[in-house]
Design goal:
- With about 50 residues, the chain is mostly helical.
- It has one domain.
- The chain has two helices and no strands.
- Helix 1 (about 1-10) packs antiparallel against helix 2 (about 20-40).
- InterPro entries: DUF8012 (IPR058325).
- Pfam families: DUF8012.
């Protein structure tokens, strides 16, 4: 899930038409919501913040 969200964030949405841009933004928003819901309560896991 993290990889898909990362790939969506890298898309150059300025080159997409309005409908595709809307789809990408909707997908990104939904994946972020799911990511928050599936994150362990202790903050660990693949979506946990890092010091990178």
């Amino acid at each position: 899930m993290h990889r898909v969200l990362s790939n969506l964030s890298r898309l150059d949405v300025d080159r997409l038409d309005d409908a595709d841009r809307e789809r990408v933004e909707t997908a990104r928003d939904r994946l972020e919501e799911v990511s928050l819901l599936t994150r362990p309560e202790d903050g660990s896991g693949p979506d946990a913040p890092t010091d990178d």
